Amino acid sequence: MNLIYQLGIRIYRLAAWLAAPVNPKARFWHQGQKSVFPYLKSKSIGKQPLIWVHCASLGEFEQGRPLIEAIKKQHQGYQILLTFFSPSGYEIRKNYEVADFICYLPADTPANARRFINLVQPEKVFFIKYEFWKNYLHELSRQKIPLYLVSAIFRPEQLFFQKGFRARWYRNILQGVEHFFVQNQQSANLLASIGFSNYTVTGDTRFDRVAEIAANRKELPQIAAFKGDAKLIVAGSSWQPDEEILAEYLKTNKTVKMIIAPHEVKEVNVKRLLALLPEKAARYSSAADQLTDSRILIIDSIGILSSIYRYADVAYIGGGFGVGIHNTLEAAIYNIPVLFGPNYLKFQEAVELVNRKLAFPVKNANELTAQLDQLIRQDELRAGISVGCRQFMSENIGATQLVLEKVFNN
């Protein structure tokens, strides 16, 4: 099994090298891999005690960010090394000012793991959510460097909890984790079922992050002017299947206003979206003062969606007709009902919002229309959801501090 794993890592590296000339993501990853060790050697790494935080991609970074920033505030003697596996995380956050060093994680070979850890010599290591790189975990364990898994979440269908040789091999990887900080009791129970007791239920550090974002939200007078006295639906991080059912809803309800912030803001995608909609829509980048003349607004820039949600009466989160929904908490922090497509079950916070009847999955345009109409028309229903969201958020904020208290024995 170990041989198959090592071979798989090498095949992945080869595939990225072959795809690099035609695939931008593969090219970024391949180039980033080559630059890691020269980058680290050029820095004054090792001059101070160092903490290494690893995030697979951008979503995990948002979970790790509160931890990084809390460490910097409460334990200022440490430098922070931040690594990413995915180009979509690294390329967007490579200039993150709080971390002292930022690079890709070298591919998980035994030689890379030894070389990397010997070079950076971390005192403590945090992997975010679900990264299980066998050779890194083994080398950290061999050197007695503690690794903490933060905001971890486990599901019964994962291989760790199955029977057979492969499952036992994967379970053995988990032996390299010093402590599991898990999001929910189910994850704790699953770890206990395979013999682990080194866990604490802390919740998800993303709650801390969205609370901070909301506290520092931007004032957007143009959005306030666009909303006026109308009921406003904000659709965030939308993909084409989401936009198709939203367009159908706009045909049936002529009174609401809608803001759509597509996941992809390239010009070709924005033009496709404009052509799909049932009436002319304004674009945020060029609307200026005529926003009040439009019923639909397209956000064709990045960085303001989390502040836009504060103006919404109802939010729709995209991605649920594809690989999975985007961040529901950015909207729920403003105590509003949230809708999304059917692919949400891998996201614990979304499942809990649905269980509490604060969020509503929809399978098609008819379900979306029925649910939106009910939420828009019933002020008392939205008021009750607002109270529930406020309670839900207050119950979950604070995971970051629980982690720090356990790790640093505060």
UniProtKB/TrEMBL annotation:
UniProt entry tagged with the keyword Cell membrane: yes
Catalytic reactions on record: lipid IVA (E. coli) + CMP-3-deoxy-beta-D-manno-octulosonate = alpha-Kdo-(2->6)-lipid IVA (E. coli) + CMP + H(+)
Record domain 3-deoxy-D-manno-octulosonic-acid transferase N-terminal: where: 46-208
GO cellular component, one term: plasma membrane
Gene3D superfamilies in alphabetical order: 3-Deoxy-D-manno-octulosonic-acid transferase, N-terminal domain (3.40.50.11720), Glycogen Phosphorylase B (3.40.50.2000)
EC number in record: 2.4.99.12
Keywords for this protein: Cell membrane, Lipopolysaccharide biosynthesis, Membrane, Transferase
Alphabetical list of InterPro entries matching this protein: Glycos_transf_N (IPR007507), Glycos_transf_N_sf (IPR038107), Kdotransferase (IPR039901)
Function of the protein: Involved in lipopolysaccharide (LPS) biosynthesis. Catalyzes the transfer of 3-deoxy-D-manno-octulosonate (Kdo) residue(s) from CMP-Kdo to lipid IV(A), the tetraacyldisaccharide-1,4'-bisphosphate precursor of lipid A.
Protein name according to UniProt: 3-deoxy-D-manno-octulosonic acid transferase
Native source organism of the sequence: Gaoshiqia sediminis
